[in-house]
């Protein structure tokens, strides 16, 4: 988020961000609760995710959340002598959940480092030296194949006993969540030993058949985000081909028909917004790196089909059923209606990331088109749209400096209806606006098509980036289309449900028996 430009959202995204921020001020997320460390199997996890979420909302809004300073004040007194959360590591029975949890703490410290220098810098270095570097060789023992287990639920637990020097989690592969924190830490602590460890973990990760091992998709995607970050920091792209291949495996074998996730490869039991957010962030960054249109379209599909359904009426995030050909219904999971212990906090980073604008003060890149206002180029840029529910978009700019430019990214086919005050050049999937006058106005329209695909048990339908469904809560959907086979809708937003009861009644169906 360093030196980022953020959009000020209106409408739907403003509601979602506000609801999540308000939820994160409640008792579950206050310092006196967070630092109790009630679940020492996941030491650092709750603390790291909470601090990261509070920092994300603070950086995005420019105003500290109420809970940020108490978290800062109590932070160090709850670390052990080696500089991390939890008991001192047993090198013969390393708790992979403790590495994962403290990986989130590292991520939070790195964001803290962007707004304060000395204290978080010291804490980053001490944690890396205390928790990770002394045990870097143990990653050589982490299995690249393993027998299937069917244990585990919405919150991972440690399996009994130890094996190969590890205490393994039912969140299979969660040790690689730490890779995300380590890669981000390298930006502020470019230590040669840390670089070697990151490369060792990365190569071990890519040597693993994550599908055969039934890895947790969240752990898989979080690791990919870290590896992308490491590539950005170092300029070393040696692993990017593997990142692309592993993400493709996820989209084919770990993603549901509603563009959410299976919690584990090969086990479509429930979705997890942590992974939905990670998949959005990976897709968006792969679009930036490759420029390939498919990643931009996928970014939109994850947001408007999966993420919007997973945010609850209280601003928290919860787990849902996995939609596939055998189970066509999407519904909220009663026993994890809100996963406040992880997903609600990850929602803080994911929602704020949506608002982050690519480019710089001289040239904005509008990857995601939503109703918002942006201060850039010495003036203001205004985007007015209800895309993808409605198809017209207007971009205006006033008071920007000479030489300022805007690139508008197009996830589906579009046409320019009118332009005033700029020269527009069409590139592959993009409109590049240059020579912008003091007053700019661009009006364009997307041209989505209704597409039908046959799957086992029926048909699925897409309209642009929306996957259409039948629903029992149609008034809460933002889009509907009358067809010969009946009325199809966009996925409803649970944010509009006033409480848990109504949310649990929400049921939508993606696989349709009748061909339209």
Q: Helix count, per DSSP?
A: 14
Strand tally: 22
Mean pLDDT: 94
Apparent shape: globular
Oligomer: single chain
What does this structure look like?
This protein is of the alpha+beta class. It is 36% helix and 19% strand. The chain has helices spanning 11-23, 31-34, 45-61, 68-74, 96-113, 118-132, 177-188, 192-206, 217-234, 240-253, 273-290, 293-310, 343-354, 500-505; strands at residues 5-6, 8-9, 94-95, 166-167, 329-331, 356-359, 363-366, 372-376, 379-385, 392-398, 405-409, 414-420, 423-427, 430-434, 439-446, 450-455, 458-463, 466-468, 470-471, 480-483, 486-489, 507-509. Strands 1-6-7-11-14-13 form a six-stranded mixed beta sheet. It has a six-stranded antiparallel beta sheet with strand order 2-8-9-10-15-12. A three-stranded antiparallel beta sheet has the order 5-22-19. Strand 8 (372-376) and strand 9 form a beta hairpin. The two termini are 45 Å apart. 50% of the residues are buried. The mean pLDDT is 94.
């Amino acid at each position: 988020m360093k030196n980022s430009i953020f959009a000020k959202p209106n409408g739907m995204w403003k509601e979602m961000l506000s609801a999540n921020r308000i939820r994160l001020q409640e008792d579950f997320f206050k310092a006196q609760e967070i630092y109790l460390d009630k679940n020492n199997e996941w030491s650092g996890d709750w603390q790291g995710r909470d601090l990261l979420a509070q920092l994300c909302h603070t950086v995005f809004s420019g105003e500290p959340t109420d809970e940020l300073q108490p978290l800062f004040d109590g932070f160090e007194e709850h670390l052990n002598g080696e500089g991390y959360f939890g008991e001192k590591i047993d090198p013969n029975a390393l708790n992979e959940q403790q590495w994962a949890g403290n990986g989130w703490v590292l991520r939070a410290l790195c964001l803290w480092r962007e707004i304060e220098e000395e204290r978080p810098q010291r804490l980053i270095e001490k944690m890396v030296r205390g928790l990770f570097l002394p045990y870097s060789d143990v990653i050589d023992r982490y299995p690249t194949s393993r027998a299937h287990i069917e244990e585990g639920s919405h919150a991972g637990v440690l399996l009994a006993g130890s094996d190969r020097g590890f205490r393994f989690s039912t969140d299979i592969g969660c040790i690689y969540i730490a890779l995300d924190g380590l890669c981000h830490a390298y930006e502020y602590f470019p230590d040669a030993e840390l670089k070697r460890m990151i490369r060792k973990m990365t190569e071990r990760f890519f040597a693993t058949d994550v599908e055969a091992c039934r890895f947790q998709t969240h752990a898989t995607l979080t690791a990919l985000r870290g590896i992308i970050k490491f590539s950005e920091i170092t300029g070393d792209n040696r692993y990017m081909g593997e990142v692309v291949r592993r993400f493709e495996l996820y989209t084919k074998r770990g993603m549901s028909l509603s563009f959410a996730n299976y919690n584990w490869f090969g086990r479509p039991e429930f979705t997890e917004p942590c992974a939905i957010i990670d998949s959005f962030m990976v897709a968006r960054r792969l679009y930036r790196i490759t420029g390939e249109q498919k990643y931009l379209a996928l970014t939109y599909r994850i947001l408007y089909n999966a993420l919007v359904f997973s945010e609850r009426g209280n601003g928290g995030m919860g787990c849902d059923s996995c939609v596939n050909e055998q189970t066509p219904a999407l519904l909220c999971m009663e026993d994890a209606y809100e996963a406040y212990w992880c997903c609600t906090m990850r929602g803080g980073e994911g929602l704020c990331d949506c608002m982050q604008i690519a480019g710089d003060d001289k040239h904005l890149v509008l990857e995601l088109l939503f109703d918002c206002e942006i201060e850039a180029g010495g003036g203001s840029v205004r985007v007015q749209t209800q895309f993808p529910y409605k198809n017209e978009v207007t971009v205006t700019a006033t008071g920007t400096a000479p030489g300022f430019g805007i690139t508008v990214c197009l996830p589906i086919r579009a046409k320019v209806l009118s332009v005033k005050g700029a020269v527009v050049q069409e590139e592959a999937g993009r409109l590049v606006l240059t020579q912008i006058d003091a007053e700019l106005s661009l009006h364009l329209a997307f041209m989505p098509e209704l597409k039908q695909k046959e799957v086992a048990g029926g048909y699925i339908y897409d309209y642009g980036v929306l996957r259409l469904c039948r629903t029992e809560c149609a008034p809460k959907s933002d889009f509907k289309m009358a067809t010969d086979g009946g009325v199809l809708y966009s996925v409803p937003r649970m944010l509009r449900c006033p409480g848990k009861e109504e949310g649990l009644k929400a049921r939508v169906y993606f696989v349709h028996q009748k061909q339209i």
